[in-house]
């Protein structure tokens, strides 16, 4: 158990380094490109995100989660998953290649045909790093993954900026994504070379697909639903407005998803290791939940309250329309880590059937709210997204309570004070920042300083035990 604890601490550290640096650098590159290229270029790429995302889900088919959960996986399991991955990537690319002209017609943007066909190559490239990346995750070796991500993102980002400055427009973003994928595949296979050493078996496929198929369907629902906003906005509005929404959605989601990803990619294999030790699993669940909330809640709400001066200062006035969208989306994304950790527990418990059922129910609710809000415009659609997020929290925690002794009230009792403190501190900081609204950088600094000050005071006074745990972890 001590060995697992040490491995987890080391993995968490390197996962944090990899995610933080990669996402920070990627976001910095994106902001630079956004200032150079403007909203339209990002809108064109955003319109195609759903097709690449669906292909990635089909290629994985839940096999990676199935292999991580299976304690006694063998070479035949890996070989079966590998060749399935290769086959599905080829099929998906062919489909993308042939539907590209129809996608261009649907959006009334002729250049999307060529952009989609070129972006589709990423699907073929990524299939060759499936097993090396999986093996590193199973070994909880996030140090190597950190090195690979940092190098790949850096090379792709530098190329994109050079191309943008030279006037290549949207193709700067396309080439950035392809080059980053190529670098990742090369480095994964250099750092962790893997040669198929087994055979494709029906037993392996039945297990992998039996567990993964339900995750596949739920992931497809999730991807289609999450990109439904972009599909509708892309059809209804111009590429520039799609770009505004894409940028707002990225700025709202990246911080929450990055920090959640750091926790999730470490805790899922760790939860799997102790899945039979109920008390330890539930203790770890609560600790993970509170640690995620204490960092992510104030971070995301902090972005919401500085949205307008931040976009004006960093991206220029051409991106100001994204400010209100960003603030609203942040309120919904605050709960992202809580969703993810609860769903992790369902997978660890082996209840991919409940996982699927839950996703279907949530998507029905979400789509209903989406279509109700469409006539009222983009701002109303974003408000609907927030309502869906909070409704989903009720459902996620309900199913967790059915599988464990962790009740909805227990989760609410631990999380609500942190949520209220984050929002209250942010509102105080926002109100004080309004006194210097005419100087963007000073408004940002003032708002964040007082928000953080009041939040830290709350932690010290009302969350003493949690604060001690945090300090202990940082010292450790």
Automatic annotation (TrEMBL):
Name this protein carries in UniProt = Lipopolysaccharide biosynthesis protein
Transmembrane domains' residue ranges: 12-34, 40-59, 80-108, 114-136, 148-171, 177-195, 207-225, 291-311, 323-344, 364-395, 416-435, 441-462
Question: What family does the entry list?
Answer: Belongs to the polysaccharide synthase family.
Q: Which Pfam families match?
A: Polysacc_synt_3 (PF13440)
Q: Which UniProt keywords apply?
A: Cell membrane, Membrane, Transmembrane, Transmembrane helix
Q: Where in the cell is it found?
A: Cell membrane
Asked if DNA damage is a keyword of the record, the answer is no
InterPro entries for the chain: Poly_Biosynth_Transport
Q: Name one GO cellular component term.
A: plasma membrane
Q: Give a yes or no for keyword Lipid biosynthesis in this entry.
A: no
- Matching CDD domains: MATE_tuaB_like (cd13127)
Question: Which species is the source of this protein?
Answer: Serratia oryzae
Q: How does it sit in the membrane?
A: Multi-pass membrane protein
